[in-house]
């Protein structure tokens, strides 16, 4: 029986739904550790919650035969999930259904958004869920835009898989990304994916060799050759300097051993920091591809620490190398985003003498943190502590620029892929930390 009111205006009896689920499943949720993420509700609880959800949204499910209606329902379930956080079972089921529906509608942004929101609260394997979503997206994505977004979001997932040493899965996803990039008819994106897949294949091969070194270190933590092999794998290929640096300091390569030991002493003077950066930069010249890039990025970290207190030729050299790294990062971003920055449409903001207005409020987080709200103003500013942070849009990419005195050009740049409806973004910052945002007010 059709409802009298249109779906967009009808009151959803979700309080009753939430209360019903809570009363049925309260026993299953009693034992939770408040200091950790919420455990995933058990299967019987989820099945009962899903039945109730489909009772409430029965007509929408019946009509969700086309991609557009699947997407509409996914967005509606996301909105309801945001209002049902006091009921973990309902919250989980709504997000799970939203992700599944969006994936079957071919919309990567919304599918990934639902998983990320789930990951903020529940103890899930987020990369595994996104891999499942990518499989569905690959079957359902039809347009060039959908395929391009699939490739862009999946490239971020690819980085997470490599970080977790899930190389078999990474290689499978890499093939899916390449297919999506080709369907998107984006030559630069295709070339970037091909290059990235080759890099991952090399890292996977190195990991197979490094596993022997890790096994040796479990028995003999001071073995010099094993420390060198494991340390180079972590630093040169994974960019995991926190774990790899102590290994290099105990390794059999004297140059690396000296540099690592010096860094572990945390040099405080600008001259010492610049000398350390020079050492890593010099080593980068002897390497290729990923190793060269990781060494240059690591050297740049030390140049950033030192450059503000340097002068003369030392400062000029540090600034030149920071500009080189910044340019390299920009090229990589432009290629992976597809197209060139010059060719993409831009949203710019210029002061007009009027009081700036809040045009959008985003819920922003980095890594596993819950983050906070960011206000976007009509003059292109963000509500950062010093008021100097800015935002802009290039095509389907949101760019956030944060002031950072020791970063290249005095700025820290986050570049994020926007979902088609511009209600969600996902990207990586300059520390390779996943950042995400969800629109809570207004729009861009």
Explain what the structure shows.
The chain has 444 residues and is an alpha+beta fold. It has three domains: 14-27 and 38-185; 266-343; 346-442, Lipocalin. The chain is built from 16 helices and eight strands. It has helices at residues 14-25, 43-56, 58-63, 67-82, 88-104, 108-121, 126-140, 144-163, 167-183, 187-219, 224-237, 241-249, 254-264, 270-284, 289-307, 312-337, and strands at 346-347, 358-366, 372-377, 390-394, 397-403, 411-418, 424-428, 434-442. An eight-stranded antiparallel β-sheet has the order 1-4-5-6-7-8-2-3. A hairpin with a 2-residue loop joins β4 (390-394) and β5. α14 packs antiparallel against α15 (289-307). The two termini are 38 Å apart.
Topology (SSEs and partners):
Layout: H1 14-25, H2 43-56, H3 58-63, H4 67-82, H5 88-104, H6 108-121, H7 126-140, H8 144-163, H9 167-183, H10 187-219, H11 224-237, H12 241-249, H13 254-264, H14 270-284, H15 289-307, H16 312-337, E1 346-347, E2 358-366, E3 372-377, E4 390-394, E5 397-403, E6 411-418, E7 424-428, E8 434-442
Antiparallel strand pairs: 1-4, 2-3, 2-8, 4-5, 5-6, 6-7, 7-8
Helix pairs in contact: 1-2, 2-5, 4-5, 5-6, 5-7, 6-7, 7-8, 7-9, 8-9, 8-10, 9-10, 10-11, 10-16, 11-12, 12-13, 14-15, 15-16
